[in-house]
Write a structure and sequence with these properties.
The chain is mostly helical. Helix content is 68%, strand content 8%. InterPro entries: 7TM_GPCR_serpentine_rcpt_Srj.
């Protein structure tokens, strides 16, 4: 019995995308039905994390990057390049390059989301005013960091 690995790699993002749309709404519901004194502003950081997870899952399904048979990802030193042989993005158009670059930029953007999460936890330990009275400033800075990660990666690496 042989297993078609290309089929497995093609359907894994769909399976995990479906799981993300099942688990994340339950996660958000549990966060917002809990007493506000237990989570405080941390619930909004978790909501930010869950929303990014849903966006990333949509991007994985809509803009797939298969790493077996349908395309090859090659790297040399500090760069990588893709050969796409099937799917929605086979044609070389500016729109397809834009979407593929944005999809790859989401990988870097995930680090911005994790960074904002860990910085928030560190600021809570320091009893910072950014986590209590000025939380709106903190969340705007966090979202700004996310946009900077995405736009710099997309603008710089998507142009080559």
């Amino acid at each position: 019995m042989t297993v078609d690995l290309a089929l497995v790699y093609k359907h894994i993002p769909k399976v995990f995308g479906t799981l993300a749309f099942i688990v994340n709404p339950i996660f958000v519901y549990l966060i917002f039905t809990e007493k506000s004194t237990r989570f405080g502003n941390y619930r909004y950081v978790l909501l930010y994390f869950a929303m990014f997870n849903l966006v990333y899952s949509i991007a994985n399904v809509v803009i797939p990057i298969y790493t077996f048979l349908s395309q090859d990802i090659h790297s040399y030193r500090y760069c990588f390049y893709l050969f796409i042989s099937d799917g929605l993005f086979v044609e070389s158009t500016d729109w397809h390059l834009f979407l593929l670059s944005l999809r790859c930029a989401l990988v870097a953007s995930s680090y911005a989301v994790l960074l904002s999460h860990f910085i928030y936890r560190y600021l809570v330990v320091l009893d910072s005013t950014l986590t209590k009275g000025n939380f709106h400033i903190y969340i705007l800075i966090s979202f700004g960091i996310f946009l900077v990660y995405t736009s710099v990666w997309h603008a710089y690496f998507g142009t080559f």
